[in-house]
Amino acid sequence: MNRSTNIFRTVAILTLCLLVFLIFNPSSILADEGTSTTETDPEVTETTLPPETILASFDGQTITLGEFNQLWEDIPEEYKLQLNKSMVLDQMISEKLLIQEAKNMGLEEDEKVIEQIIEQIRKITEQILVQTLIEREILDKVKVNDEEVLEYYEQNKDSFTEKEQVHLYNILLETEEEAQDILEQLKAGEDFSEIAIEKSTGPSAAQGGDLGYLTKGTIVPEIEDVVFALELEVLSEVVKTDFGFHILKITEKKPETVKALEEVKEDIVQTLLPTKQKEAFENLLEKLKGKVEIEINEKALK
């Protein structure tokens, strides 16, 4: 079964499953414990079983583990959260029974049905043809070369630059007088983290004033100007901001670094590739349109 046909079938069965799920309690679909059934519960089927293993048999027909797994894998993950394998298997059985009943009624010979089948085959064929053309002429041929990667890297180095960082500790106080008093205690040898826990009104108080690593350009300007000029483990003077009065120190500095080209090469390729593919597709369409004379009835279009 080709992929396009399989997708249509998956959608059809998925629709049936969701309808059943919305209308009935899912437990009503499952066979009661002890009820005789020819179905093997796919929830407990060993994954090591071969694909030709019979999962269900009925009226001379069978569903193999391979058939079931192929359909199950095609169901989007978000829908699987609302379903279980027993529901999907039940709908596969229902589909086969409906198909058999349609055949028993002679619908295969019905002219309207035949016309619909031919039309569907035509549409699927056209979709596969277009899909294959795009794969061969666009997806398989359009690549991002090393020169393009290097050019993008050089022109966008800011995007691959990790700015300077500091590991910052902060004690926040409400008044300048209190902050000056605490600063004197710290200079006299009191432990920064203990005082932060006891006195700081900032959100990092419980962590001993530890704000973690902060990047240049992301901090309040009044504080940033101070902390990126501080030496390690040296106390700042009292810094006033709209939040209050701060006493700051840093325990580590990370200098600005630029990621190596090889480290970001694949990211650059994935950034450039869609644009190149789009351009190639537009060029292909322009080339094809240029080979023919297109007449549009503007009056009828309105």
Tell me about this structure:
This protein is of the alpha+beta class and 302 residues long. It has 3 domains: 3-105, no CATH class; 142-154 and 260-301; 164-255, Chitinase A, domain 3 (Roll), CATH 3.10.50.40. Helices cover 51% and strands 14% of the residues. It contains 11 helices and 8 strands. The strands form 3 sheets. A 4-stranded antiparallel beta sheet has the order 5-4-7-6, sandwiched between helices. The chain is elongated.
Task: Output mean pLDDT.
Answer: 86
Provide the succession of SSEs.
HEEHHHHHEEHHEHEEEHH
Radius of gyration: 34 Å
Number of helices: 11
How many β-strand stretches?
A: 8
Helix content: 40-55%
Largest sheet features: 4 strands, antiparallel
Overall, the morphology is elongated
Would you summarize the structure shown here?
The protein has 3 domains: 3-105, no CATH class; 142-154 and 260-301; 164-255, Chitinase A, domain 3 (Roll). 51% of the residues lie in helices and 14% in strands. The chain has 11 helices and 8 strands.
Question: Key terms for this structure?
Answer:
single chain; 302 residues; alpha+beta; Chitinase A, domain 3; 4-stranded antiparallel β-sheet
SSE blueprint:
Blueprint: H1 3-23, E1 54-58, E2 61-64, H2 65-74, H3 77-80, H4 85-104, H5 111-139, H6 146-155, E3 161-162, E4 165-173, H7 176-187, H8 192-199, E5 210-215, H9 221-227, E6 239-241, E7 244-254, E8 257-258, H10 261-290, H11 298-301
Antiparallel strand pairs: 1-2, 3-8, 4-5, 4-7, 6-7
Helix pairs in contact: 1-4, 6-10
